[in-house]
Amino acid sequence: MAPKKKFSREEIIDSAFSIAKAEGIDSITIRKTADQLGSSIAPIYVNFNDVGELKQAVFQKIIQLSRQMIAEQQTGNPFRDIGLASLKMAADYPVLVRDFMMKPKVDLPMYDEEMALVHLMKHDPDLEGFSEEELAEILLKMRVFQTGLTMMVANGLLPDEFDMEKMIQLQDSVAEDVVKGAYQRQKRNGEKA
């Protein structure tokens, strides 16, 4: 009898990620993951207590992928990098983007993720002089816009001639408007004090 092949935790997560990428996170099951690996379910249960724990590991992989995409942009403008990574994520992983944006995931550490983005924004020379609260508000406003644009990309809802360059131009224009508005509000509030 041939020995059973062992699979690393990372190989199992990659297999489940592949399922999520094609079919959505809710499609991950222990059986499907085992089938994807060409194994029994035993190696999965050696590494994970249940499917919920496996899905959590996939969520963490998606967050890590998102952070990596932000880091790869390197435009010198961290705020812009966040938006560019969002568009790239929507174009490359539309099923995952729809899953993340359309289904509430109360078990994800979204507050920590938001604070990490605010921290990145602090290093953006175009955002100098804003408090953390003001940066968080700017981020929220851009997220509202970016969510709409990202969902349009993920669902193929933009006109054909609306390529990545046009999306980037639109995103940059809206970001500039949001930041200018924030500076104007800050100035008005400073004059009132």
TrEMBL record:
The keyword DNA-binding applies. Keywords: DNA-binding. Gene3D superfamilies: Tetracycline Repressor, domain 2 (1.10.357.10). The keyword Amino-acid biosynthesis does not apply. Transmembrane segments: none annotated. GO terms for molecular function: DNA binding. PROSITE patterns: HTH_TETR_2 (PS50977). Coiled coil: none annotated. Residues 29-48 bind DNA. Residues 6-66 form the HTH tetR-type domain. It comes from the Bacteria. This is DNA-binding transcriptional regulator, AcrR family.
